[in-house]
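dude i think i finally got it to work??
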Amino acid sequence: MMHKHILIVEDEQKIAALLKEYLEKAGYRATIAGRGDQAVAQARKSSPDLMLLDIMLPGMDGMAVCREVRKFSDIPIIMITAKVEEIDKLLGLEIGADDYICKPFSPREVVARVKAVLRRINPEPAGKTLAIGPITIDEASHQARVSGAALDLTPNEFKLLQVLISQPGRVFPRDELLSRVQGYDCEGYDRTIDSHIKNLRKKIAAHLPGQEIITTVYGLGYKLSYTPQK
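look at this
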């Protein structure tokens, strides 16, 4: 069985070496790129299974790297940042990242995040089809459709839609959605769900204009429901 390949994009050599050591102990194959421009070229050439991407990099910053990689690949990307401003975290997710982690961090936490993200994009086939109105999810093929048209969803967006459609009309609190989508509990990250909801709404609205499928229940969370238009 091939080991999953993790590309570590980090210019601080000690941090990069520590992450590489812990990932390899966990059974992954890890390589390091110390510059942003090198990371783009390396991702294109070697097609890693996941990228750990620092924001502050020489050559090209992490945000730019993420945008460039998303032009040719949908590999999961976990952003690493020393910035704590929430807007930076949300921006990282909106440009196509799948998760983020703040410095200083525990290498064990990074490994746990890597495992959680890879589990989300390689789920065990459940064989079920979930549906409400024109929206369907095929869990086995990991495909979502609206009125027969395929939705181009990130792993987080797919999991979020999967959770919401599993119990139509139920209000899911942000922290529960975070736990079920991200695969771990962590205080302070629940606002990232708002970013995923925003993107998911936009993609659904492209096929169902003027219909509010995912509703905000203020002070509580989100619910998914569908009422046919007359």
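Residues 129-224 form a domain with the Arc Repressor Mutant, subunit A fold (CATH 1.10.10.10).
im so relieved honestly
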